[in-house]
Amino acid sequence: REEREERGEREMEWVVYIFFKLVTLLYEIN
After folding, report:
1. How buried is 21 (Cβ within 10 angstroms: 0-12 exposed, 13-18 middle, 19+ buried)?
2. Given pLDDT bands bounded at 50, 70 and 90, which one contains residue 3?
3. CA end-to-end span of the chain, whole Å?
4. What's the Cα-to-Cα distance from 3 to each of 8, 14, 16, rounded to whole Å?
5. Distance CA 17, CA 3 (A)
């Protein structure tokens, strides 16, 4: 029951981490 919620939270953390990293790279390029 709680396992699915934990996985969802972990997936969100990965998405935020990747998105933040991409934004940082784009900012550095510009």
Report:
1. exposed
2. confident
3. 45
4. 9, 17, 20
5. 21
Residue 16 tokens read as 């935020």
Residue type, 21: K
Which tops the pLDDT comparison, 7 or 15? Answer: 15
19-29 average pLDDT score: 96
- Strand stretches in the chain, DSSP E: none
**Domain limits, the chain:** 1-30
Radius of gyration of the CA atoms of the chain, in A: 13
